[in-house]
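Working notes for the structural subgroup meeting. M.R. asked for a predicted model of this chain before we commit to crystallization trials. I am recording the input and output together here so anyone reviewing the notebook later can reproduce the run.

Input as submitted:
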Amino acid sequence: MSIELGTNAKRALFEDSYKAAYQAMGPDLRPYVTFREQMGVDTYKFRTMGRGMAQARGASQSNLNTLGVAHGTVEATVESWYASELTDIFDQDKTNAPQEIPALAKVLAGATKRRETQLVIDALYAATIAARNQVGTGSDGLTVAKLVAARAALKANDIMETPTLLLTEKQEADLLALTAFTSADFAASGGATTGNVRQGHFGFNYVLVGTGRDEDGLKILSGDDRTIFAFVPSAVGLVCGLNKTEVNYESASASWRSTSMLRAGAVVIDPLGVVEILCDE
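Returned structure, recorded in token form:
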């Protein structure tokens, strides 16, 4: 139980601390997907549009044919999530508010931020990915060959957006064991210097999802083989309808209840823009 939150000033401090903590907590997938904000809905439909092919011009002044481009929607279900904690007013003299409030805000922000990330991850696992967009076997970890194959699968579909790679610390360790990721011959700032995979290396944005999180994260679906994903922004949709905090007094428990709330949903819009990569651990 948290024991230091009460006055309006403290509530304001909590709300400010929560917003700061939410922005700081990782990973944040909003910049790497198609993100929408929509209040008051239970579902959200992302628009899809098929491809078209240019046609040769016929005789002079002849009628033009339309492409007949297919239009459709992909629906994301918006779910409600919360993280809540009580603060006993009788214990307010036992802790230091400037230390307690940011710590509580960080806990609640982390809970809702990780859930938002997990919604995207769950949508990736729920999608049906074509065999041509499945890369690697469980015989080895993450390799340069698998990264190149993943980019090739996207390029084969004429998808030229910069992909994001979701990986765990296990796959990051695989990459940092490779000269191609640590040597300055391959990158101006190698992983040996920073301890992290450099953003943009081999054409990917890298987003780490730790295996120690309480949520499922990136799953091991068979034996010790973990499935990770590469995807482009247009291929995955995330909608957020509510992301706020409240602090209310509950007389029955003589406590303040601080709650963070999230309504969000995710869906794969275009499976051709998603690549599954199988890695041994």
